[in-house]
């Protein structure tokens, strides 16, 4: 039981920390798209809320990185190989996502339809969560991917230009930006909460 606990902690704590960092960073990027599209409407609250959520999740990720360093666990050759293969597959999925986003950007620009780029990007990001769900054995990634794809499809039917009072807005950017950021931040929070739940379930046998 002791070795299982230590292995769970070492692997899961580092994995969770990386996952939360990923969701935090890309959530902030999507939020900035929403903020730019809002053209100062409601300022400075959207920016302040984005900064607060980012700092909370970032502090969680950093605390997990620090925690993982205090865990003593001898890594077996099999575990080292498994980790190497996992990182290689993750790198491939992430790389393909980057290439797909770049190609979508180039194609949308060349066709003079750049307004389609953010919805398409949301769908690409959503699709990349499906192989990640299988790779990391996290079923809720299917939900994250599905929501992002749905947000992308819905946003195609949302107008690009709009006004609220005397403020000109980009409703599509607001919807896809804030919708995607909330989805990614919620996923990061879910990763954090799941790890805390696992730690509470496990006895503190590594201290004996």
TrEMBL record:
Does the record carry Transmembrane helix as a key word?
yes
A Pfam family the protein falls into: DUF7010
Segments passing through the bilayer: 12-33, 45-66, 90-107, 113-133, 140-160, 172-192
Q: Which domain of life is it from?
A: Bacteria
InterPro entries linked: DUF7010 (IPR053824)
Q: Which UniProt keywords apply?
A: Membrane, Transmembrane, Transmembrane helix
The residue stretches assigned to a coiled coil in this entry are none
Q: What is this protein called?
A: Permease
